[in-house]
Fold this sequence. Notes:
5 helices, 0% strand, 118 residues, 49% helix, mainly alpha
Amino acid sequence: MTPGRGVTNPGGRIVWRSNFNAHGCQPALASIGLIPEAEEGKRYVSSREHGMHALRHFYASVLLDSGESVKAVSEYMGHADPAMTLRVYAHLMPNSRERSRRAVDRVLGPSYVEDHGP
Length: 118
């Protein structure tokens, strides 16, 4: 992968989504039985659950789950702005409540004792 250029082939040229799906991903998925084999002379049945779309979704979800910033993920995905990334991938972002609690606990340290009263 070339930074800022997306996925590239050994010659440094961009791998187009349609070629990746038709010649790489879909044949591999068919060979392990996740999608049906293409009929002779015909294309594989397309689906958003398989191919480049699924790979992009997986990539974004791994980054967001690992705590990468939405701004960085937006840049990596080639989105025009982070708002686009939020609209598409916000459902993948982990619940921030526990992360917020851990951040406060780290700052306050082990000496912090919660007083629940008498």
